[in-house]
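Quarterly update from the structural biology core.
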Amino acid sequence: MTETLPQMPVRRATRLDPPVEYDSLREDRPVTRVRFPNGLTGWLVTRFEEGSQVFADPRMSAMRPRHDTRPGEATEAGQDAPFDPVFVMMDEPDHSSYRRLLAGRFTPKSVAARLQPYLDRIVDEHLDAIAVGPETFDFVEAMALPIPCLVICELLGVPYADRDGFHHATQAMMDMSRSREERDRGAKWLIDYITQLVADKRRSKSTEGLIAELIRIADAEGSIVTDRQLIGMGVLLLFAGHDTTAAMMGLSTLTLLTHPEQRRKLLADPDRTAGPAVEELMRYLTIVQFGLGRVAKEDLELGGQHIREGDLVVVGMNAANRDPRTFDAPDTLDFDRKIIRHLAFGYGVHQCLGQNIARAELKTVLPRVFARFPELRLAVPAEQVPMDEHGTNYGVLELMVTR
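Predicted structure, tokenized:
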């Protein structure tokens, strides 16, 4: 018999705020059983403290088994990709063993040295192109999508000419409204693409990019990295490395266009303000709209609820980052806010590997866009901006602006 449970809240009353139902859940049922958009059932966590506990507790497993679903039913992003599990779905100590292979490329120092000069150049080039183009244009097409794509291609050694293919495949794979078959087709395209790219790089003995570096690691005697894991890492880095930042960049721009006081604060002293502004935007917007899941490895207590071994527990990060127990006036965007931490990148050992690249892109793009085009404004009413309500990452589908 199918368990009758309330649906996870997904409908938004306003474009920049999470579903209003989260407010009452945080107060009355901070750990509650729901049915998720993919049809699975489990526990939804809406408070910051309990959400942090889920991410940090070693009794919670990042390994989520593949679930069969009915035709036309979507599944949780990340758990159904038909390749070997990569480090984001591993527990300790295996997780750290694989993550260490990549971590050096993603430190703030490495990002500043290896990617920032390239990022500065391509951002200026795209701003120059906007300046000589039509006065009204789609910011997503002009900036929010190409900049993250160029950066991840540069990092991985992926041809930028292939961007349309891997972006469309990513959209299909992460769209919760699509059928299992459609999502798996997107995943298969990415797997086939990375598989061929690895073969081409091996044949040509390419040394450019992180994928070439991973090939050398996989080919070393006694390596822990198999080809299937190498391909899985490549797929993960390619789709996660551009889709999340593109969504955040477009949504942040919409936010700045509709919050003139905070925009003025950013532009008054961008060297000082850009860092805190980006952290506040990530807290306030929290684009992961269906949460991140863990599975209980044993019976445990969480927020006064008994969680059984094998139960799915999902942290509603956008709800947790609006928790008034942690943040004063959490529904207000405030670039003067002193943030110790937030959950936009997760928490604990599985915290997002690429977070420093995302920060660098946002801190570079957002101040420069508005400094270069101080009169930038929406070309349509804010309530008419089309939003991605079905993708794993919430964002704008199109952002028409006038410079």
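The first strand starts at residue 31 and ends at 35.
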